[in-house]
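Throughout our pipeline, every protein is held as a single compact record rather than as scattered files. The record that follows is passed on verbatim for readers who wish to inspect the format:
___
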Amino acid sequence: LLVGIDLAPGRVQQLTDTLLVASLEPETGEAAMVSIPRDLYGVPLGDGRTYDAKLNSLLSTASADPITYPKGGPATLKAAIAELLQTRIHYIAAIDMQGMRQLIDGIGGVDVVVERAIDDPRYRDALTGTRGFFIEAGPHHLDGETAMAYVRSRMAAGENDFTRAARQQQVLKAIAQKLAGGNLLLSLPTLLNTVRDNVSTDIPSARMSTVAAAVERADLDGIENVVLTPDDGYVIVDAFSNAGYVLYPDLDAIRDMAARTFE
């Protein structure tokens, strides 16, 4: 479970605005990514309860309330995603905006092909305060700051949370390709040291080399990409709930997808 934390100066709550399950099959190299909307409401927690708030607040809420959520924040979120998908979540890794920026700069940037131009004058860089983001369609080499704008912008014409989820997957794939193109086993310690203050994970240090080897063997060109969207029937939109704009999960549809994707 890969979690992007929307943490920046002036923000008091650590919302997980990016939630993405990545799967690697070490023996075959098969890989898949499933993006889970931050606005999911009523997600089962795996203990008979449901989380009656937006999913992006669960990590923060559970971390702050050990009586109600005795597993703690990361384990509670892992259990909820596992129950949502009916699949095992082995590990969780959380990174904030500064950490992702450092990671991308640390590998020398990433290469992506932008499918259509994005012109978002309302975008604001949460770390620098810079306003506006524009990128033309076509191939681009992105540094950390530009890549973060590319994966966070959602207010341009034709863009939304679901289209930016697809862009997040695109950049993660580009990161994996860049890492796999070198000797990840040798470079991993340096990369982890670079982002150590901005990333947390429950992957045991003894397993890091195994994970790195799986990334290097992954068929990244054949990776399966899924975004849980209303158009595909995975979620139901309620724009006027008491909690504001929320998405209710169609558990049967989501679990059928997960069974196909992670089989």
Notes: The radius of gyration is 18 Å. The chain has a mean pLDDT of 92.
